[in-house]
Every structure is written in structure tokens, then in C-alpha cells.
């Protein structure tokens, strides 16, 4: 009877030793891969239930995700309402070009010979002719209610840049300042005004009216 017991005990010891060896090998492999020692499991690392993370104790790496906003395509119909040289309403929604500061539609410009031009209305009509019956590619910069501030392009050309380059708007960003300087040197649009050109900027129209 002693013989069979010794054989059974020896077989159990061999099984236990093999299991222990497997655990050690798994731990060694995990440590070699830079992982904490422990049993290797086939269980999924994701969970379908919310898990609270203690940021003081769990230092998981955060992977930044770039938010990509695809440009929206806006079809501008002949019914578009253009309020000035940087804002318009289409389909019940109001849009403002982020990169352009509009010219007051009531602004008058005085040239060197004393000639007066309705440059504010000219700037507004320039934007209307530019976008009517065209499809714009626009990215929304931010929104408040039914008002969207957008960066729009037409045939891969930034509309705000076009307006500033034609003297139909002022630059709202430093990136467009060079375009504004070029329009001012040429005397285009609002820069036909000698006072604006001499000062490098235009005084508010209300102050100019008060000085008349």
C-alpha cells in the first residue's frame, strides 16, 4: 500500500511544481516586458461599465485626441441677406467671418481730390457679389445661439483674406495684417480715404460725422 501512495504523492508534487514554474515564467515574462508581475490573463482590458479612476493613485497615460471638424458646405442663394462686409444670413442662420472686421455700411471715404465714395456700401456689395450663387467651405470657430463665427473659403481661397486684400474689410488677425498693408499702399477700397491712409487706420464714422 505504501508504494501506490508514494507514486500518487510524487505525481501531485510534480503537478504543483509545474504550475509554480508556469507562474514564475509568466511573471518573468511580464517583468521583461515592463509589466507588473502577476498572472497573465486572457480577460479583456476594457469594461462595458463605468470605472472610477483615482488620479492620485492611478497614473495612466493620457492620449491626446485631436478634434477634427470637417468643413461644412454652405450654398449661398440669391436670397442671402448681407448686412455688411463680414456678416450675412442664409437659411435662417447668421454667419460672421472671424478673420474680417466689417466696414460700417454707412461709411463715406474722401479721396485726394475731395471725391466722396460710399465705400461702406461698396464693401458690403463686394461681399454679396463674391458669395452669391456660390458654395462656401466653412469651419465654425464658435457659436452663440443662431450666430456662427466662421472661417470660409471659396475655391481654396480664404474669403476674409480676399476682403482684406481688396480693402473691403479690416484684418481681425495678425496673419492678415500684411494683406491689409498691401491694400493700403495701393489705395484700394476703404484706403482711398486720405485720412485713413495717412493714419494707417480709419477713425470711427460717428466721430467723423461729429467733426463735420
Describe the structure.
By secondary structure, the chain is an alpha+beta fold. The protein folds into 2 domains: 1-40, no CATH class; 72-211, OB fold (Dihydrolipoamide Acetyltransferase, E2P) (Beta Barrel), CATH 2.40.50.90. It contains 6 helices and 11 strands. It has helices spanning 2-32, 119-131, 159-165, 177-186, 194-199, 205-211, and strands spanning 72-75, 81-82, 87-90, 93-97, 100-102, 109-110, 116-117, 135-144, 147-154, 157-158, 169-171. The strands form 3 sheets. Strands 1, 2, 3, 4, 8, 9 and 10 form a 7-stranded mixed β-sheet that branches. β3 (87-90) and β4 form a beta hairpin. The longest helix has 31 residues, at 2-32. Mean pLDDT is 79; it is low at 30-41 and 207-212. This is Endonuclease YncB, thermonuclease family. Keywords: Signal. InterPro entries: SNase_OB-fold_sf (IPR035437), TAT_signal (IPR006311).
